[in-house]
Amino acid sequence: MYKIAVIPGDGVGPEIIIEGLKILKAVAKKENIKFEFINYDFGGNRYLKTGEVLPDSALEEMKKMDAIYLGSVGHPDVKPGILEKGLLLKLRFGLDQYINLRPVKLYPGVETPVKDKGPEDIDFVVVRENTSGLYKGEGEIKDKGTEDEVATQVMRYTRREVDRCLRYAFEYAKKRNKDKKVTLCGKTNVLTNVYDLWERAFNEMGEKKYPDIKKDYAHVDAICMWMVKNPEWFDVIVTGNMFGDIITDLGAMVQGGMGIAAGGNINPEGVSMFEPIHGSAPKYTGKNVICPLATIAACGMMLEILGEEKGAQLVEGAIIKALETGKIKSLGAGKMGLSTSEVGDLVASFV
Ligand code: IPM
Ligand code: MN
User: Closest Cα to atom 4, ligand 1: which residue?
Assistant: First the structure.
C-alpha cells in the first residue's frame, strides 16, 4: 500500500490533479497496486483565509508518505514568493529532494516549434540540482530604498551537493537506453568559482567511476542554442538549480509545450514529489480547458520512482495512444478540441 499525499494547489491545479488521479486509479486497478490518497488543501486560498502556508507539522507528515503528487502553486492575490518559497521550495528543501528530473521528450503526434525535428531527435533529460545554489536564498538588501542600495544573492555550492547531483546524472545515463552521455551545463567562462567546482567534480567522477559514459561540456547560453538547433545531441544534461530552471522551460517548449512537460523532485533516499512543470494558470481556472497530460506524465514518473515499472510504462503507453488517435488537436489551453476531463478519459481508456 502506497501512501500518496495529494496537494492540488492553486488555479488549475485541482482540475488537472483529478485527471492524474483518474489515470493512477486505472493503473492501480489493472496492476493490482494499492494506493491511499491523503488530500491537503495547501495553497493560495488557504493562505488568504488562515495566513498559513505549510506548517512544520505537515512537513513532518509528508516525511511518512511514499510520494507527493502536486498540482500547481501560485495565486494572483498572493504576493510572489510567499507560496513558491513557503510551499514548493519548503517541500523541496525540507524533504531534501536534491534532484529535479525533467524529461524533454517529443511524443509522436505532438507538434514542436523546432523545424524539421521529430520524436527521434528530441529525447533527453535534464537533471537539475534542486536544493541549493541561488535558490538557497543567501544574500541581503542593504540600505534599501536609498541611492546606495546594494542587493546580493549568493550562488553557493558545496562539493558534496555537486557530487550527489552528478552521481545521480551519471547513474541515470548508465541505465537510460540512449547515447550513454552526460553533458554538464555551466558557465565556466564567467562563474569561475562555482562552475569550476562543478567541472572538476564532473571530470573526476566521470573518469574514475564512469569511464564508459561520454562526458561533454557546454556553457548554458550555448545549451539554449543547441537545444533548439541540435536537440539530438543530448542524452542527459546536468546543471545547477538556476540554469536548470531556465533551460527546462525551453525544454518544455521544444517538446511541445507546458501541456506535456512533467518533473520529479527526487530524494533518492527519501520522499519524492511529482508535478507538471507549468504554473497555476489562474485565467483558465475552472474552465476545463487546460491540458492534463503533463500532470498525467508526472504520475508515470512517480510510478517509476516507486519501483512500479510496469505501471509507469502503462501510463506512458496510454499517453502515446491517446495522442495517436489524433483527437487531441493541440496541447495549448483551450485549443485541445477536447476538455480537460475528456483528455483524461481518453488516456484512461488506454490504460
Ligand atoms: C519550477 C518553478 C519554480 C522554480 C518556482 C515556482 C519557484 O519555476 O518548478 O521550475 O523556480 O523552481
Ligand atoms: Mn521554472
Answer: 245
